[in-house]
Amino acid sequence: MTAAPVWQKSSFSGNEDAPNCVELATTTGGILLRESDAPGTELSASPAQLAALIRSVKSRAEGRTQDL
Fold first, then answer.
1. Given this model, what pLDDT does residue 62 score?
2. Among residues 60, 34, 29, which one has the least CA distance to residue 47?
3. What local confidence, expressed as pLDDT, does residue 15 receive?
4. Minimal CA–CA distance to 36: which of 3, 15, 7, 58?
5. Residues 8-24 pLDDT 10s
C-alpha cells in the first residue's frame, strides 16, 4: 500500500488557509505539484525539472528570459 503524499505550502503563502498556493509533496518517483484550490490535479516532476521551472520563473520575474 502506498502512503498518501504529505503536501507542503511555501512559507510565502501566508496562513495555512490561503487558497491560492502551489503545494509540493515528495514521492519515491519525484516531486508532485498541485494548486491548493484545485487539489485533484497533480503534476509530477523530477528534482531537475522542478529546478529548471524555478530558474525560469525567477528569471522571468527579474525581466530575463531563459530556455528550460
1. 81
2. 29
3. 66
4. 7
5. 987 776 666 666 788 99
Cell numbers 509540493 label which residue? Answer: 24
Confidence of residue 7 (pLDDT cuts 50, 70, 90): very high
Any residues with CB less than 8 A from the CB of 20 and at least 6 apart, and which? 13, 35, 36, 37
- Cell 487539489 belongs to 39
Q: What is the pTM of this model?
A: 0.71
The answer for residues whose C-beta is within 8 angstroms of residue 29's C-beta and 6 or more apart is 44
Q: Using alpha carbons, list the distances in angstroms from residue 57 to 12, 17, 24, 67.
A: 15, 24, 16, 11
Residue with cell string 498556493: 21
Count of Cβ atoms closer than 10 Å to residue 38 Cβ = 9
